User: What shape does this take?
Amino acid sequence: MKNGSAPRSSRLPAGWDTDMSDDYEWVPLRLPPEVTRLSASIRLSIEAEYRGWELTRVRLYNDGSRRVLLRRKKTRIDSRRPDQPE
Assistant: This one.
């Protein structure tokens, strides 16, 4: 735990926190069931192209929702940038 923040594993599915390096920023996302595979692909491609995020993991649930884990290299200038996906 750093800077009083919650542990990473509290927001991640089991097993996803095993390979998480401090060299990267990590953002878990939940995509609701109404987001199609094509729409999700386009949204994630935009995050990758313009904000530098890489898709690390995807988990599809029975209800059609998805949990996604994105990462990008931390910069020395600013480790918390305001352009993180929501």
Observations:
- Residues 37-51 form the longest helix (15 residues).
- Residues 27 and 70 are 5 Å apart (CA to CA).
